[in-house]
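Annotated sample (chain length 86).
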Amino acid sequence: MKILSSRPAPPGSTTLAHVDVEILDGVKMYGIRVSRAEDGTYRAYAQNSERGRTCAFSREIVAQIAEATLSQLSLTGHRTNDQHAR
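Output written by the structure step:
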């Protein structure tokens, strides 16, 4: 799992960032929205098409995306907008 690009979300939401990730070698996804739910779990959503969802992630992949995103944000000096931090 590798973060290719990250864009921190504006303050005031549960969204942490939008990221471009290389999930596996040669498998890249762009514009993934990473957020944290009120129960403390992370969510990762791909962009939708006019027909709805374009993909879904397992809990394990979401955890990897969230961990990589948080690490990237801390490396770049951005604070997370996580209003539900524990």
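Annotation: The first helix runs from residue 59 to 75.
Annotation: The two ends are 25 Å apart (CA to CA).
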